[in-house]
Specification:
Elements lengths: L1 H8 L5 E3 L8 E12 L2 E10 H8 L3 H4 L16 H16 L4 H13 L6 H5 L8 H6 L5 H14 L4 E5 L5 E5 L7 E3 L7 E5 L21 E3 L21 E5 L27 H8 L1 H33 L3 H12 L1 E3 L6 E3 L16
Antiparallel strand pairs: 1-2, 2-3, 3-9, 4-5, 4-8, 5-7, 6-7, 10-11
Helix pairs in contact: 4-5, 4-8, 5-8, 9-10
C-alpha cells in the first residue's frame, strides 16, 4: 500500500490552458527534455496532451503484459499522430545538422538515452509495467523496456528497420544496418539482415556497443508487428516546437551550417584576480600616489617617534661631555681627615685610613 501511495504522489502535474468557455478547457503536460550529441547541447519543450496520456494510462497492466516481452509490439505506437510528429521533428533537426543515417539514428538514440531510469515498482507499484511512448515522456523516463519501446517507435516512424533484443533481465533494440562496427545478430537466422545492438538505457552507448555484462549471453529477438498496436480513439494537436541546439559544448565540425541555428553564447571566462597595487595604478593612479605618500609620511613619523622614545635610554647609558667634566672636577677635590690628617677623595664621608667620619668644615 505504501508503494502504491508513493506512485500516486508522483503522478505528473497538469497545466491547464483556459479557453473562452469551461468546455474549451484543455490540459497539457509541459515537459523539458535535454540531451547532448555531436558536441551540442539540445533542449526541447513539449506540451503533451493530457487526454492522450490518460488514454494510454487507462490500458490495464494485465493487457500490457499479456504476451510478455515478445508482445511489446502492442505498445509500439507508430500510428499515434503525436508520436509521428515527434519523430518528424527529430528527423528535421537531424536534416538541418546535415547528419547521415548513422548520425541521424545516433541523434535520436542520445535523446532517448538521456531520459532518467526509474523502477516500475517504485513509480507504479507493479513489478512489471511496460509503458507506451507517451507515458515514458510524461513520466520522465522509465526502465529498460520503456525507453526501448519509445526508441523503436521513433525509428519505425522514421523508416528504419528495428527488432527488440532481449538479453537476460534486460530489453533493448536492434537497428537494421550493413557493415557497421559492433555487435549484431542476423534475423531471420538464414537471411542477410543484420540488426545491431542499441542500448537505450545507458548514456553514451554507441550503435553496436554491447554492455560488458551481456557479452556471450544468449538473447531473444522479437520482431515488431505494428498491426497489433494499441491505437487510442482520440484526436490531438501535433507538437509545434522543434528541438533546439542550445549551445556548443565541444568543438565540432558541422558540414552543413544553417542560418536558423541560434547564436552560440560563450561561457563566462574566469579572470585571474589582479594584485591590489596593480589595480590601483591602472584604475586610479592619483589615489595610488596619495597612498604611497601617506605610507612614507607614516614611516618618517614612526622613525622620529622611535628616536624620541630611545633618547632617555641613551642618556642613561652614556654621559654627555658636561656631565663627564663635572664628575672629573668633583673627583679631583680632596678631603683631609680631622682625626688622622689623611687625605681622602672629595666625595668620601668616612676616612679611608682611620674610618672616622670626615667633617665637611
Amino acid at each position: 500500500m505504501l508503494i502504491i501511495a508513493l506512485a500516486m504522489m508522483i503522478v505528473p502535474q497538469r497545466v491547464i490552458a483556459q479557453g473562452d468557455t469551461q468546455q474549451q478547457q484543455q490540459q497539457y503536460f509541459e515537459k523539458l527534455f535535454v540531451w547532448d550529441y555531436d558536441g551540442r547541447h539540445w533542449t526541447w519543450n513539449l506540451s503533451i496532451p493530457s487526454a492522450l496520456y490518460d488514454a494510454y494510462r487507462s490500458v490495464s497492466v494485465s493487457v500490457r503484459v499479456k504476451n510478455g516481452p515478445s508482445g511489446y509490439g502492442y505498445l509500439t505506437t507508430t500510428q499515434d499522430y503525436y508520436v509521428q510528429m515527434l519523430a518528424q521533428k527529430l528527423d528535421d533537426a537531424a536534416t538541418q545538422m546535415g547528419y547521415n543515417d548513422y548520425d541521424r539514428v545516433s541523434f535520436v538514440l542520445a535523446f532517448v538515452q538521456h531520459l532518467p531510469y526509474t523502477s516500475d515498482l517504485v513509480t507504479t507499484g507493479y513489478d512489471e509495467y511496460p509503458r507506451f511512448p507517451i507515458e515514458t515522456l510524461v513520466d520522465d523516463g522509465g526502465d529498460c523496456e520503456d525507453v526501448a519501446i519509445l526508441f523503436a517507435s521513433l525509428m519505425l516512424v522514421m523508416g528504419y528497420g528495428v527488432v527488440y533484443i532481449n538479453p537476460p533481465n534486460h530489453y533493448a533494440v536492434g537497428i537494421l544496418g550493413d557493415n557497421l562496427k559492433g555487435t549484431y545478430w542476423t534475423y531471420p537466422k538464414d537471411s542477410n539482415q543484420t540488426y545491431y545492438f542499441c542500448e537505450t538505457t545507458g548514456v553514451n552507448f554507441k550503435i553496436g556497443q554491447l554492455p560488458q555484462e551481456f557479452s556471450g549471453q544468449k538473447v531473444h529477438i522479437y520482431p515488431i508487428d505494428e498491426s497489433k498496436q494499441f491505437v487510442p480513439s482520440i484526436a490531438v494537436m501535433p507538437p509545434t516546437v522543434e528541438p533546439v541546439p542550445a549551445q556548443t559544448v565541444a568543438p565540432t565540425f558541422n558540414p552543413n551550417p544553417t542560418d536558423t541555428a541560434p547564436p552560440v553564447v560563450p561561457d563566462p571566462i574566469a579572470q585571474p584576480v589582479l594584485p591590489l597595487s596593480f589595480n590601483l595604478i591602472v584604475e586610479n593612479p592619483v589615489l595610488f600616489v596619495f597612498i604611497i605618500l601617506a605610507i612614507a609620511a607614516s614611516m618618517v613619523t614612526a622613525v622620529m617617534s622611535t628616536r624620541r622614545r630611545h633618547i632617555p635610554q641613551a642618556s642613561t647609558a652614556s654621559t654627555s661631555p658636561d656631565s663627564q667634566l663635572l664628575i672629573e672636577t668633583t673627583q679631583s677635590v680632596e678631603k683631609f681627615c680631622s682625626s688622622c690628617g689623611a687625605a681622602n677623595k672629595g666625595y668620601a664621608v668616612f676616612c679611608e685610613k682611620c674610618g672616622k667620619q670626615i667633617s665637611n668644615n
